[in-house]
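ok, trying the design again with the full structure, not the truncated one.
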């Protein structure tokens, strides 16, 4: 159980970005064989990223085990608490990384390359880049973009540049939100836990949250109204904008108050956010596959 805990299975939800291409690439329609193949490939991609991300979580926990003991929640993690030895944890990290590389390479050569790029980037992050202010959040966001790209690679669809930029801006917003929450929770001890927090201030992070949330919303609108999206997917994704705004604004408000230690904790505990996000996902699926379902949104909207 402790070895499963050190892999942080709750954080595997971050890998749902790999399913974006499955939905927006319209791979959930077609013959049963084609749909099953696409879904199977996407699920395989998800599992490979779960292993890869767990490998990096373990490595990061090994490196940060001393500072984690200063955090009110992270001090209970198995490595920081001494429940799992550093040697055992390192072996598990290597096994997860190897399994991710081998599994992804078998599934798709392009996916294998993407997983390898992710692992290299995250190793650099754990060793060096997380100590560089702003760049720490940029690197995390690039890691999420690699997830979205991997999902497109494995189901054989081209992904819109606007969707990639939107993913990057959204994840940058999430990363800055976590920094803001850490400062709110740790107060004067924040720099002892994470060195880069000494360079961030609540005012600076509030500005960064405003910029990145606005950029994410604008990029979503640009994706939704892009000629390629309108011609190939649908012209009605723009109608989900109110739900996008609600989720982003609620997320920002709760994180700036320091009510949650990170995005994962907010997502699994805040019912209002869960409802808003679920409605957005269902709306997107319904809109993207409206023609296949025999639904005319034009008649519903009165035109």
């Amino acid at each position: 159980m402790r070895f499963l805990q050190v892999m942080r299975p709750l954080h595997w939800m971050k890998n749902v970005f790999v399913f974006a291409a499955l939905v927006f690439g319209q791979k959930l329609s077609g013959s049963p064989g084609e749909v099953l193949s696409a879904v199977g490939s996407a699920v395989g991609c998800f599992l490979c990223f779960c292993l890869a991300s767990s490998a990096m979580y373990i490595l990061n926990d090994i490196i940060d085990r001393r500072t984690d003991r200063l955090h009110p929640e992270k001090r209970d993690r198995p490595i920081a608490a001494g429940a799992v030895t550093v040697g055992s944890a390192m072996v598990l990290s290597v096994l997860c990384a190897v399994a991710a590389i081998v599994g992804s390479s078998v599934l798709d050569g392009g996916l294998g390359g993407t997983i390898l790029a992710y692992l290299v980037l995250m190793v650099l992050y754990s060793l060096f880049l997380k100590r560089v202010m702003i760049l720490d959040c940029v690197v995390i966001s690039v890691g999420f973009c690699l997830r979205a790209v991997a999902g497109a690679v494995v189901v054989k669809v081209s992904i819109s540049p606007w969707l990639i930029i939107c993913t990057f801006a959204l994840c940058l917003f999430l990363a800055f939100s976590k920094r803001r929450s850490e400062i709110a929770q740790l107060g004067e001890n924040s720099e002892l836990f994470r060195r880069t927090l000494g360079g961030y201030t609540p005012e600076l992070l509030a500005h960064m949250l405003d910029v990145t949330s606005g950029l994410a919303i604008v990029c979503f609108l640009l994706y939704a109204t892009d000629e390629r999206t309108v011609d190939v997917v649908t012209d009605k994704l723009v109608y989900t904008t109110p739900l996008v705004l609600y989720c982003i604004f609620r997320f920002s408000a709760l994180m700036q108050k320091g009510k949650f230690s990170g995005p994962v904790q907010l997502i699994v505990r805040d019912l209002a956010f869960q409802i808003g996000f679920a409605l957005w996902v269902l709306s997107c699926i319904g809109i993207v596959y409206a023609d296949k379902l025999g639904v005319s949104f034009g008649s519903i909207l009165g035109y």
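Keeping the full-length input from now on. The longest helix spans residues 32-63.
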